[in-house]
Amino acid sequence: xxxxxxxxxxxxxxxxxxxxxxxxxxxxxxxxxxxxxxxxxxxxxxxxxxxxxxxxxxxxxxxxxxxxxxxxxxxxxxxxxxxxxxxxxxxxxxxxxxxxxxxxxxxxxxxxxxxxxxxxxxxxxxxxxxxxxxxxxxxxxxxxxxxxxxxxxxxxxxxxxxxxxxxxxxxxxxxxxxxxxxxxxxxxxxxxxxxxxxxxxxxxxxxxxxxxxxxxxxxxxxxxx
Length: 225
Known about the structure:
8 strands, Ubiquitin-activating_enz, nucleotidyltransferase, transferase, ThiF_NAD_FAD-bd
């Protein structure tokens, strides 16, 4: 298909066709999630579930791809769905306008091949990790704060977040260091690359590792966990 012709050589024809069968759940449709959904849709991931119970407000306009003057006050997940109908109407897109909780997490994540973390609450990340592990689903973790970002790939049973965060109720640095426009785009790109490698079983993964990114000093470090 001409739509995906520029994916070729990087991906084989068979790999490209397989992308249409995968189901990915993106938790969060804000700074990270908007870019992640955009890239997954353009790649040709066949089934995307976007989960976010929040609406856009003015503070989102500096960085969130799906936010603009016309979308303020509207559910982020619904705007993501509208965007994907324009970008790639061939994919099946499901929007969930609920916050993910202990009550609904298993129902929302069930049946997916991969979960991508695009949220800003550490406690919710632990919920994602435990639920994905229970359902035997790999998870891609990403977080940003100011000039800094991090990415890790978590397979069921790895419990990687326990090695990254000291406690489940630890506070993220986003509120202290801010969220610019460029850091989410970079971290989202790396998360999508990791997702593609997991799905196609290719390349070296960030499993039991943490990629630390410092854009201010151009320090990029992969730490063994």
